[in-house]
Design goal:
Alpha-Beta Plaits, single chain, alpha/beta, 4-stranded parallel sheet, 3-stranded mixed sheet, 278 residues, Rossmann fold, 13 helices
């Protein structure tokens, strides 16, 4: 299905989302700079103007490149952008890296959002949870529900492909951005999340990205950095194993491996026996 066909088929959903945002009178958007939250911010800014404010929380689990991109996107959209420090790393339950890790991370995020929303006099907090996310393992969404956060994409029934189609129509550079996740998702469940491990993964992924790959993950396995590459880029990666190994080892891993299975979001969940988004 083409992007135009996706937009035609979901026009009523987008209309519902616009109307719901307009009726709120103002909103704070939990803004990561990813595909979903960028569309939410762009549409909220269209219908609410200055009453739509973005908030990005920074911590060692967020690559510096993503922080910079969030700033750039907020400027492009024209929305006021708040940046705060997130303290999920101070919570031993988060550091323990159980299957509920995201619950504690998002709980901290929405606490910060609630404080900012009160200061700004904004009645609603929005996130980028979309309709397709309902079938994935998303403990962070439980934290959103408990905090009263609204998910306008999911409420309107907009799935990931439709989000990308509307993002393209609005001229958002994120429309074809590879799916992102926090750096902690590169660590197997049960391996403690530490700033040092997160920084190691961040350096390795930055080096691989500098080598020209777009859609991939570097998974942390102690001394080993395991590279997963999307199916369409895997042949190129196989032809450049030496260069990629040097990039990963240059970041601080002692050994580098290339996974023969293509990257897909949720591999760590799959290994843990958890439901994975289809």
């Amino acid at each position: 299905m083409t992007l135009e066909e996706l937009r035609r088929g979901s026009a009523a959903k987008m209309d519902r989302m616009r109307a719901a945002l307009a009726s709120g009178g103002g909103a704070l958007v939990a803004f990561s700079g990813g595909v979903d939250s960028t569309l939410v911010l762009a549409v909220a800014h269209q219908v609410l103007g200055a009453r739509a404010v973005a908030l990005t929380a920074h911590s060692p689990s967020v690559p510096e490149a993503e922080r910079a991109e969030a700033r750039s996107l907020a400027r492009q959209i024209g929305a006021r952008h708040l940046e705060v420090k997130s303290g999920e790393g101070d919570d031993p339950r988060y550091r323990a890296n159980g299957i509920d890790r995201c619950y504690y991370c998002k709980g901290e995020l929405y606490r910060l959002c609630a404080e900012a929303a009160r200061r700004e006099g904004l009645p609603v907090i929005l996130d980028g949870f979309n309709a397709d996310d309902r079938s994935d393992h998303r403990p962070g969404h439980q934290a959103a529900t408990e905090a009263g956060v609204r998910s306008p994409l999911a409420e309107a029934g907009l799935g990931k492909a439709e989000v990308r189609a509307w993002s393209e129509a609005l001229g958002l550079p994120t429309w074809d951005k590879p799916q992102m996740a926090c750096l902690a998702s590169r660590l197997p469940y049960g391996v403690e999340v530490t700033p040092e491990r997160l920084a190691l993964v961040e350096r390795a992924e930055a080096a691989v990205r500098a080598a020209g790959l777009r859609s991939f993950r570097v998974r942390y396995h102690g001394d080993i950095g395991r590279l997963e590459v999307a199916a369409d880029e895997l042949p190129a990666a196989l032809a450049r194993t030496g260069e990629l190994a040097l990039a990963i080892k240059g970041a601080g891993f002692r050994l580098a491996t290339l996974d023969l299975e293509p990257f897909r979001s949720g591999r760590m969940n799959e290994l843990a026996g958890l439901p994975v988004l289809g």
